Amino acid sequence: MKLKTLYTYLFVASFLLYDWAQHSVHVLCEEVVNGNEAADLGNTTNRNLGTDLNTEENTVTSEEIKKEDDLLAEIEESEKESAIIENLQYQTEVTRLMDIIVNSLYTHKDVFLRELISNAADALEKIRFIAVSDESALDEEKKLEIRISANKNKNILSITDTGVGMTKDDLITNLGTIAKSGTSNFLEAISKSGGDMSLIGQFGVGFYSAFLVADKVVVYTKHNSDDQYVWESTADAKFSIYKDPRGNTLKRGTRISLHLKEDATNLLNDKKLMDLVAKYCQFIQYPIYLLHETVYTEEVIADIAKEMENDKNYDSVKIIPSEDPNKKTVTVEKRVKKWKLLNEQKPIWLRSPKEITPEEYKNFFQVLSGFNDEPLHYIHFVAEGEIEFKCIIYIPSRSPSSNDQLFVKQNFIKLYVRRVLVADEFVEFLPRYMSFVKGVVDSDDLPLNVSREQLQQNKILKTISKRIVRKILDVFRKLYLDGKKNKEALKEQIEKEEDEEKKKELVTKLNEASTYKKIYTEYKKYLKSGCYEDDLNRSKIVKLLLFKTMLHSKSISLDTYVENMQHDQKFIYYASGESYNYLSKIPQLQIFKKKNIDVLFLTESVDEPCIQRVQEYDGKKFKSIQKGEISFELTEQEKEKEEKVKKMYKVLIDVIADTLKNQIFKVEISRRLVDAPCAVISTEWGLSGQMEKLMKMNVNNAEQIRAMSGQKILEINADHPIMID
Amino acid sequence: MRLSLPLLLLLLGAWAIPGGLGDRAPLTATAPQLDDEEMYSAHMPAHLRCDACRAVAYQMWQNLAKAETKLHTPNFGGRRELSESVYTDVLDRSCSRNWQDYGVREVDQVKRLTGPGLSEGPEPSISVMVTGGPWPTRLSRTCLHYLGEFGEDQIYEAHQQGQGALESLLCGGPQGACSEKVSATREEL
């Protein structure tokens, strides 16, 4: 008997064991199969993304979801009890930042989604890049993707990526205690710009924009070299970090869960979410899936409808009886949640320019740059030949202000090699004076896993860089010429136009700034720096520059100046000084006014250094009217008069020279003065007055200042009454 | 005895040396007197631009030829052809070289640039060359100016047709630095 009981017990025990084992196995399978999807319903801990999710759309049966009800993706309070929670304070600037964000009346809240998607994509780029030299980096999770889902029951919106993830230290550094260098600078920029939140991404603190729509943010993250951690915060002065008591459910990557504010719950609406995500994810290279509910409606006979009710392929099936009692059919509404792939297209820069609409270029620019406005111009350049590459270059409508250059995230050009982002902080790819452009360059010809230093020395990269710079300058030149042509055509039209109304319209159009003029106004300092620095492209750049002149208070190009030169004029004359008004009155200008010879007015500090480096323009040399000798063709009569005057005044000249011998190098009779009694000129090869002034501003050493002071020449006007006396 | 040997050698030397020198006329050369423009201008003075252009053409040709000989595999035509990134890099380095081996000297009262690739006609037996100062920067800028004007592709194509073709591309032609018009102006000066 004992044996039989034993056997019975064993039998029952094994049954129980088997059942338990089955359940575990079954649960494991569920985990394996359903991972993320069920998790987003707030029900599972399982983060196993993608082993099963090979197809573009994945259906999860309602049964499987029901089982997931027991498993939680969002950590429950009870589970937290077992965790050792560290509570930390935010750095003060971060608190200030969060205050501003939380209280902002910012209307474009969807900037948060762009930022979180962008961060997710960055994390994926990082792990892909690591995997190039270390394949094992992808072992935990081979798929590289982003998943977005909404849990309507709990008002939670989640964005999950299988990117590089964060270690515990990364979490603390990146999300709170050590304010990134961008934070205080962003705060400054915000106060200046009147609260333009859209800048946030440029300062590397885009993550905090999550608080625009959420009052609590929870971040789950798993890095290859650390355990899974949880970070949570409610936008007050502190945040908590703890090891996830559920273990490494994510495998690798990060999941950001936004517990939405009441006024943001519309984000959970499928259509709204879809539109929003679609806008930004078109340009992300990694597949982005959105958990999306599809509703199928059918009209069927009541009996068949009954059968459909139990269809396991759908999450819910609802039968809506017909209002017409005579109708034999009923309406069946079947709902199913699927992962919808939102970005099927190739990255925009790999597509043919002909296929892409201006709207798409604009959207890409907004995602790339973080600006909310339109670029002034874009260049989609597909280079062929020995070195092939594709690039899109944008000219933003605003230049980074001189302060911003220091702390704006330096991702001017994103460099891709065979679709792997190699460097997005590639400051040295284009010369400094071109640092205002933004864009993407993708080349198959570059090596993938080299250090940044090696890449910068790379010959192919240097060649690509040269070609892009040339292309940009050529495009600018073309824009300038087109603008000029259009203006001339408009002027002709205006003259012919008799109708007053139409004429007014045309005049308004004429006064609108051309694309080139807008670009030039925003970036002229950069171009002029280029004129000074870039020996290779100087002759191209100088053709793009515009200057005000004695006869033109609205800037003109050197082409226009040369066109209007007098036919025996040998030089392009210029004067440098602090302002247009100042220069209009200098005595050295007098002879030019009299002879109606135009003179360039150089008022920016970089103007004269730039011009001095230009050897000649259209065969003409540049000459400063404030230095050296001014010579015009003199008639025989004039030459004789000059000789006579020199003799006459010799005594006076000697006396003045002697009196001023410490300050003046020599005294001469002037050829350039008409009304003024005298003027001070610099020697031909010395520094002009303006240059000297500027250099003195930058130097504090008195000795150096003395060394730099050029020799001065005093010119006297032989015709002036004072001199004659 | 011991002293006499060195003394003897000294005497021999003393006799030999004056004897050696005495056979030849003394050679003199003076450093070129540079005018203000030559000393202070930011640019290559006009009368030296032809020389400068030729120096640049020579350096470009030499560096390209050297790079070509380093290639191991000639293409089907038996010609060694550099790839775009290589010749771009070679030309870039040709311009950023240090140029210290070039300078100015005065021969027959005419100031000329002198250095590798610039000798023409009989060389004077002795001359004084002024190097350094503004000359390396001026040559480097001249080189980059031509590189920007014509572009690497065009320059390499001309190079492949021969050294003469490269020089005439950069320096010849009606607007070139060595054109007839320019040499006429030089004579005026």
Automatic annotation (TrEMBL), chain A:
UniProt entry keywords in alphabetical sequence: ATP-binding, Chaperone, Coiled coil, Nucleotide-binding, Signal
Cited CDD domains: HATPase_Hsp90-like
Query: Which intervals hold domain Histidine kinase/HSP90-like ATPase?
Result: 108-264
Presence of keyword Cell membrane: no
GO terms under cellular component: melanosome
> Where do the coiled-coil regions begin and end?
480-507
Task: Kindly indicate where the leader peptide sits in this chain.
Answer: 1-21
Tell me which PROSITE patterns the record gives: HSP90 (PS00298)
Top-level lineage group: Eukaryota
SMART domains per the UniProt record, alphabetical: HATPase_c
Where do the annotations place ATP binding? 115, 119, 161, 166, 174, 180-182, 202-207, 254, 452
Which InterPro entries does its entry note?
HATPase_C_sf, HATPase_dom, Heat_shock_protein_90_CS, HSP90_C, Hsp90_fam, Hsp90_N, Ribosomal_Su5_D2-typ_SF
Q: What family is this?
A: Belongs to the heat shock protein 90 family.
Protein known as: Heat shock protein 90-2-like
Q: Which organism is it from?
A: Piliocolobus tephrosceles (Ugandan red Colobus)
TrEMBL record, chain B:
Signal peptide position in this chain?
Answer: 1-22
Query: Key word Translocase present in the record?
Result: no
Keyword list, A-Z? Signal
Q: Name one GO biological process term.
A: regulation of B cell proliferation
- The reply on keyword Signal is yes
InterPro entries documented for this protein: DUF3456, MZB1
One GO CC annotation: extracellular region
Sequence ranges assigned to domain DUF3456 in this UniProt record: 49-178
Q: Name one Pfam family in it.
A: DUF3456
Superkingdom in the source lineage: Eukaryota
Q: What is this protein called?
A: Marginal zone B and B1 cell specific protein
Q: Which organism is it from?
A: Piliocolobus tephrosceles (Ugandan red Colobus)
Organismal lineage:
Eukaryota, Metazoa, Chordata, Craniata, Vertebrata
